[in-house]
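We modelled the chain as a single entity of 72 amino acids. Its sequence is:
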Amino acid sequence: MTEINSIYSSSLPIPPSCVAFSPKTPDLFVVGTYFLEKNEDNEDPGDEAYEEPRPQSRNGSLLLCKVNGDDM
């Protein structure tokens, strides 16, 4: 098995969900992020503290990256 070493790494504030490359511009790529926030609502209708569920909120972004030799 061949080992591949990283030459660059980066941490994102929310999990990445996809990466897209363009054949017309191979030095550019887009990283998409997406995160679904969990609600901490009480889900037991028999409980006195029960509240109607709120819609979940979503967060995401598109990050445009450029490769320049061994740098990004």
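As a brief sanity check on the tokenised model: The CA atoms of residues 31 and 59 lie 14 Å apart. The first strand starts at residue 16 and ends at 22.
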